Amino acid sequence: MTITDFLFFAFAGVVVASALGVVASKNPVHSALFLVLTFFSCSAIWLMLEAEFLAITLVLVYVGAVMVLFLFVVMMLDINVAKMREGFVSYLPVGALFAFLMLAIMVYVVGPVGPDVMSTAALDNAVKHAADYSNTEALGEILYTDYVLAFEIAAVILLVAIIAAISLTLRRRTTTKYQTPANQIKVKRDDRLKIIKSDAEVLK
Amino acid sequence: MSEMIDELLARATVTGLELWNWFPADLQTLLLILGKIILILVPLMLCVAYITYAERKIIGYMQIRIGPNRVGFRGWLQPIADAMKLLFKEVIIPTKSDKYLFLIAPVLSIMPALAAWAVIPFDRGVVLTDVNAGLLYVLALTSIGVYGVIIAGWASNSKYAILSSLRVGAQIVAYEIAMGFALVGVLMASGSLNMSDIVEGQSGGIGSWYIWPLLPLFFVYFISGVAETNRAPFDVAEGESEIVAGFHVEYSGMAFAVFFLAEYANIILISSLTALLFLGGWLSPFEAGESSFFWFFAKACIFAFCFLWFRATFPRYRYDQIMRLGWKVFIPVTIVWLFVEAVMVVAEVGPWAV
Fold first, then answer.
1. Contact call for A68 and B26, based on CB within 8 A
2. A192: Cβ–Cβ under 8 A, 6 or more apart, which residues?
3. Cα separations (Å) of B15 from B11, B29, B72?
4. pLDDT for A16-62, tens place per residue?
5. Which end of chain A has a smaller Cβ tally under 10 Å, C or N?
6. Is B193 at the interface with chain A, CB within 8 A?
7. Which residues on B lie below 8 Å from A60 (Cβ)?
8. ipTM of the complex
9. What pTM was estimated for this model as a whole?
């Protein structure tokens, strides 16, 4: 067993264990953190597959931003754990069905029935890239040439989603007081202060 | 006598080499990497210890007082004394806290701050791993530093701590975007994600550093860096007057100290990154000058000094204005400048080759 094999099995083990933790842990905050660990170990496996751009982006986007916001929401909920676990058995058949479907797809892809990807011949043909191969560059070249239309459509859809999300949640509440820092900076002495000349007065 | 010593030394070297060759190749690589990590981390930890001393001294002089001057010559041993004190203090775990997360939180806070140093080049070729996606790696690792703070706040089971961690979370996520966009500017200028290539792209004296064509991005990056490390004037995470001490209010002893180590390690990291990305890292400011590690160190020191200077100078930002600065000022500025830069690249104006 080489060091790469050892690392693969170590990370794969962590992925499986922490994915189980996501569904099995009682506390939703723990579940969210287990999901973070799953993402992290997945990205380590992707790194070993020479897909460093995807691996780092997984950490950057999902771990660094999306899961932080998830944690935010989960942390603020006042959750009754017993009530959450009530429906566990009734959801089990649906969950099991989907789990079985996904397992079937994986067996089809990896196993002997479906496309030939895991046979020794196919594995020997798999390209092992040189040390100076840059996955980032390769992805960028394809993304901005062959798939530029699809890429830009995806970007526009995301932009529309951003604007929609903002316009749905943005409401000016009349009860709160707002400040406009631009106006605050622009303030001149004459707007605030008036000097009045008056004669000195002696109090008795 | 000296011959004997020479012979003994030679023998020791030979046996040492034999012992080394006796190790399996994988173990040799592992030991080499571990050795390099220690070579980076030990000086880094010393820097962290002495930046706390520098902070107290500098802010002291700025406020016309002396600062620590009792332990050792002129107080030079103060950080050691502080470390000893914190090591021997009890780590108190609150009764209703989440014990595991409570103890994991400081680790999660310091781990990314240290791991990011793996791709930082100190001089030409002096780097632990010269990966080609180095900049992305740094960005990813600095983005997970927020977990330490959030988990600490939640696991403490204290309302002040959780208020603080909510503030930090929102602040860091907001400023990360501006920071990422500023880095995209550097990336466009250098055409590479490799840290060494980015530095080499700035060779040719002070005039060809990226700070000049990317001046707005430089300011956005450095100020966002101050906000990312929760330093004054963006230190709402530990606004003493509002939420006691913030997310680490329940921590004591070494667990508390680890949060501080992480904060100062992050300061040094941001200073070094700014020096590398915008000020040409180890390159000399003179066109014919010798490039060396000391240039890098000096440039990083300037920024580290700025961190301390800001703390002594600026009053704390109000929370809503922090958010306004991040979302409504920095992000538009970076987007506009990226556009300007793209036009400059297409028109072949500026120091970069297309």
1. no
2. none
3. 6, 19, 42
4. 999 999 888 888 888 889 999 999 999 999 888 888 888 888 888 88
5. C
6. yes
7. 136, 139-140, 143
8. 0.81
9. 0.85
